[in-house]
Amino acid sequence: MERTLTREDLLKLAAAAGGAAVAAGPVGLARAALAAESGRLQVMDWAGYGNDGGQAMFAQYVKGHPSNKPQFTYMTNESDALAKLHAGQKPDIFRPYVGWVKYFATSGLVQPWDPKLITNFKSLNPAMVKAGQYNGKQYGIPADWGFDKILYRSDKVKPKAKSWGLLFDDRYKGKIAWFDDLNMLTVAGLYLGMKSPWNQSDAELARSQKLLKSKKHLVRLIWSSETNLWEAFGSGELWIAYAWPNDWVQMKKKGLKVVYMSPKEKPVAWVGMLMLLKGTPRRQLAHAYANAWVSVKSGKWLEDNYGYGHSNTLARPSSADLARVLQISNPKAVGLPNAYLDRDIPRRAVYARRWEEVKAS
Amino acid sequence: MRLRSAFATTTLLGFPVAWLVVFFVVPIAIVALYSFDVYTLFPEQHGFTLAAWRGFFHSSVYLGLFWKSVKMSLIVSVVVVLLAYPVAYYLALSGTKRKYVLLLILIAPFLTSYLLRVLAWKVILGNNGVFNSFLVWTGIRSADHPVSQLLYSRFAVMLVLAYVWVPFVALPIFVSLDTLDRRLLEAASDLGASRLQGFLRVTLPLSLPGVAAGFLFVFIPTVGEFVTPSLVGGTSGYMYGNQIADLFSTGFPDWETGSVLALFLLGVVAVLTLVFSRFTQMREAP
Asked: How far apart are CA A305 and CA A53, in angstroms?
């Protein structure tokens, strides 16, 4: 006999479930809420972090939630993600970097996480956790991290000094790569000794832009994808590059004699931040996904396979070389005196315009 | 009868016109609204303004980049026409029975992806590529001193674009030559014209509509090209199309300026198309 549920039955069931959840405490409440969420978790992430190679990062989540597997869309950068969000795309989670935390936290597009629902949260690097906060709320769950430094071929290049100036060295015309990001203006500001490279005045920005424009003829490639950089660097087209830790790992794997140099003006450190969209219908699932991402297992996999650091302090890479370059045992590696942690650029639109003009010049 | 004919015309034209309106006119109108700030990506900013247009016309950088792209496209278009013309001429007028087979071979690269065809040039032009390996093998260059300007340069962009577009240009020229009335050539010959004179005074003028069409086929897409420059162009091969794409999604979204750049390109291309189509029609007039 077919049995149909009446409205009263449904209300009774809901009341019973709610009552059971209250009786079981906050964890029970969370479980009940989790059970109520449905559909696939929508994740907007960078290429290589979805089902195109990054499955290990969220394997634990998939195991626990087989009927809510993540569905990925991709972002090429934060600006691209911002445009997509404003254009109506509604992922549950996306992953901008630390310099955008304040922007997104104040944009009204995201909501804070509840760290209590992330069991691995207690193992995360406190400095990175703090960097994910705005007004005392946790808008970003720190995930991967690394540095912007200079990669160069030690058999071809003899730097005059450990400085960002190597990216502007006339002796290596046609062998230099910059990164396609307005952060190049920040680097120029650091090189020129400015007090606030992330908040330059108009006059300072003009100086930074002038430097970049005047040195652009030395640059062979302004890279926006790492594979592009690896290809050009690996084939000898490039000897010097603005690079991330993984680029150094990859070039070492190719057997090249490379140095990953910390400039005296200090490198820039960055931390990827998982962010939760406002109004997401899968809040609990998103927390479970973030928890999987910041587990020790995922962290070690990320370090071993992608060559970046991971916010979980218990995760350690297999390579001693990588551990040394990342200063993995230094919990304050991403901050002073070691490096400047990337930060909010209050006049980002102005910086972006200036950087576009550099490329177009 | 007339009514039925009118109905048939409306039905036949209705779908393509509707298609054009929905997928061409409306999107362009939306882009135009973005350029005037009537539409914005960010909900808090609104209001009609000409700021982005003013910024564009006062920026020597954007106009300079546009001019650079125009020059590159002109060079590519001229080179491609010069390369394609003899090929089309041979196919159309040599009397070979295999002309359609040869034509098929000419367009065979189109059976593979555009991206693959462009990426293949990296293998050819790179420091360790086919060309440099050959130079090293012949002893012309040492392995430590390859010709490194081949890749990630303006030259690389123009070379790859020329390669990609040659078949596109050969086709319209082939069509105009293939439909040429051969009796005109015979008449020229009977009247004492040499083969060169016959070509210069009969064949070439009559094939100019095909040449003009082919030229436009290359110029229009290459002036706004951004895939090839981003793959093989490096810093010096950066084009106007790359700037449009970057304004929409790199650094911080600037859809207003990006829309202005896109519309300016569209306007220039539209004017050029009008001029060329006028020229083509004049040539075709009896």
From this structure: 10
